[in-house]
Request: fold
Amino acid sequence: MENEIIKILDEDRLLRRAFFKGPSYVREDMTVTSFAFKLRKGEEGLSVDLEKLTSYEKSITNIDKFRLFAVTAKDIRSIELHCAHNPIPDNYAHAEISGTSFSNKKSSQLAKLAVYISYPF
Amino acid sequence: MTALAGRTRIKTEYGNVSSTTTIKRSGCEIIDANTGYLTSGSIHIQAQSYIPKLSGKAIDILYKVFNFGKLKSNWDGNHANVPTEDVIRRAVSFLTLGDESDLPIYFTAPGPNGEIVLEYKNEKNTAEVFFEENTFSEMFLYEDKKMVYSGEVQMNKLIDHLSTD
Reply:
């Protein structure tokens, strides 16, 4: 079953980890800065987890270092980016956000659309 | 030429103390690297570098920006770069200039590729100003969550956007 690639629906949410300490990508009001959604040089897609295939505990990996933010597939598509399920070893929930125009502008828009996941608190 | 009344302070940007070279040509006596002293007839001009007094929040952000330069390579465990001195210098210069215009600085962070962002916020609007290598910089302006501008950094546009009027 875990070899199956599933279709991501508009209402599905994708989880992205953001640095919470030293330095932090999370502002005092628990919104997130663009850099949490920025591609590194050489990267073609942004790694995320499909919420319905994982748990917050597994997705956050380190509660001292990260906080989780969610974006819906609909929001991602609304700014002309794509998302696709892309399982990797040890993480069936892994997916990628990509697009030919994945610029700073898109990263900034994704950050604005992202919603804080209140976990672990 | 109108005579200057009493002691007159002339404010310039840092590095624009129009320079010791010019003053030397005028035959003045150089007091130190940052200060020129010109005597010509009854006119007395003293030029010195101007160090603006920053707001408390700007000092806090300034401290953070300088500390980005002390990060170790791969600080995120995923090959992140450390901001270069040039990127830090440009961010600090902009932060200082913005603070003189009372821009409400709010947040800063280093990017995974050695970038720095300065973020501003008032009651209704936000702004993100990015500094990257190769002198690249750009800004995004938002009204709530709606992006209303993306493009090159324009200080006047930024001031208008964050004005409380």
In short: Chain A is about 15% helix and 25% strand. The mean pLDDT of chain A is 94. Chain A touches chain B at residues 19, 23-25, 27-28, 33-35, 38, 40-41, 104-105, 108-109, 112-113 (CB under 8 Å). The CA atoms of residues 84 and 95 of chain A lie 6 Å apart.
